[in-house]
Amino acid sequence: MQPNGITIEQVLNETLSALLGENIAIIGASRTDSGVHALGNVAVFDTESRMPPTRSVLR
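-> structure tokens emitted (59 positions)
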């Protein structure tokens, strides 16, 4: 997250937290340098939710 603007990480954290009703902090698998695409980049998060992955809206 950056102090000078909205980031994808921030939006994902806020959206997942609202959706799951708990504080979520994603963990990115890697980062990219300026000008490098992030296609295929992944993130994971822990949750206490019992929602099966097959019902996830994140697929």
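The beta strands are 27-28, 43-44.
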